[in-house]
Specification:
The chain has 184 residues and is of the alpha+beta class. The protein is built from 4 helices and 6 strands; from the N terminus they run αββββαββαα.
Length: 184
């Protein structure tokens, strides 16, 4: 049987996962300088399966505005290049022999605003996950038997506070990422 402390612990874990997922998504959005993590969200279809880019290639940032992707299997370079292009990151990779060069586009005002919109979309997904965790826990709370009504009411207040704290964390992440993106 589920107890209120266990439910709160599970809810906190689910909300932390949502915030971590938002952080991961944010790390894929660059703000002018190259970082190998920018391609962490890229999925490559090869050998009849879909895998993360870092499972089929190494990514390095030898210059501030350039990423270099080195496939483990040179015959899969075209698939990797295609995956990077289709990942909706605004990147235009170029296959050169055994490596794929990914120059970063210069950041004009319009591009920065587009990236801020993408950040907000990822943040909203994180907030939705936090809300789902709260709703699920609230439903479980209402179904608990043998628990005093006062305890349930206190737990609901604690759930709401937890929810508000995690939504605030995501809002702080948004602000920090926006400042990072809009800085020229």
């Amino acid at each position: 049987m589920t107890t209120i402390p266990q439910l709160m612990k599970d809810t906190r874990a689910a909300m932390e996962k949502a915030v971590d997922a938002a952080k991961r998504e944010f790390s894929g959005i660059h703000a002018g300088k190259a970082s190998p993590q920018m391609l962490d969200t890229v999925k490559v279809e090869m050998y009849g399966t879909v895998m993360a880019l870092n499972q089929c290639a190494t990514v390095s940032a030898p210059e501030a505005r350039l990423l270099v992707v080195t496939p483990f299997d040179k015959t899969q370079a075209k698939a990797i290049e295609k995956a990077i292009r289709e990942a909706n990151l605004g990147l235009d990779p170029a296959h050169q022999g055994a490596i794929i060069r990914v120059p970063l586009p210069s950041m004009n005002e319009e591009r920065r605003k587009e990236l801020v919109k993408v950040v907000h979309k990822f943040a909203e997904e994180g907030k939705i996950a936090v809300r789902h965790a709260r709703t699920h826990s609230r439903d479980v709370l209402k179904k608990l038997t043998g628990v005093p009504e006062d305890d349930v009411k206190h737990a609901e207040k604690d759930l709401q506070k937890l929810h508000d704290d995690f939504i605030h964390k995501i809002d702080e992440l948004i602000k920090a990422k926006e400042v990072d993106i809009m800085a020229v």
